[in-house]
Amino acid sequence: MAEQTTGGTATTAAPTVSIDGRPSGSAIESPRTPRTPQGTLYRGSVGMWSWVLHRITGVAIYFFLLVHILDTALVRLSPEAYNAVIGTYKTPIMNLGEIALVMAIVFHAFNGLRIILVDFWSKGPKYQRAMFWVVLVLWAVAIAGFLPRQLMNLVADFH
Question: What residue spans define the domains of the chain?
């Protein structure tokens, strides 16, 4: 209880308390606890995971292109070094890397089209979850057409 003095007599007044339990009227108000937004386009939903996968595949493709440009430039510097690098690419491990690269490129391409629709189609945000599942189905179909032939190449490299 707070005591207030008015004209020499002490009176007690009940302090007012704000919602968060602190006395109101204090000079510094406490900040409200930020609520995590539910139902946003990206945070914690399919949109977030498609965003994360899009960034990961984009960075992987970027590094592949960087290495590809550098190893292609070797042909001008030293044809022998270029042939040695190309020889290392004909290993089963690199074949698996090619499979991962194609999987990343196909997902990145389909998801990029989905992002364009979400950004520029007025109903895009409403259907972004369904479009993500369409991207995954198209990706699976494309990879199913590519994978058997590439795996045959991998098996042929072992023999």
Answer: 46-158
Angle at 138 between CA 133 and CA 144, to 5 degrees: 125
Topology of domain 46-158, per CATH? 3 helical TM bundles of succinate and fumarate reductases (1.20.1300)
Contacts of 89 (CB under 8 A, 6+ apart): none
pLDDT at 102 over 60: yes
Q: Where would I find the H helices in 34-91? A: 46-77, 79-88
pTM above 0.90, yes or no: no
What is the dihedral sign for C-alpha 6, 10, 12, 17?
positive
Grade residue 91 by pLDDT with cuts at 50, 70 and 90.
confident
Length of the chain: 159
Q: What is the CA radius of gyration of the chain?
A: 30
CA distance 121 to 157: 46
Q: What is the arithmetic mean of pLDDT over 15-30?
A: 60
Question: In this structure, are residues 118 and 131 in contact, taking their beta carbons and an 8 Å threshold?
Answer: yes
DSSP run (H or E) holding 44: none
Band the pLDDT of 26: cuts 50, 70, 90.
low
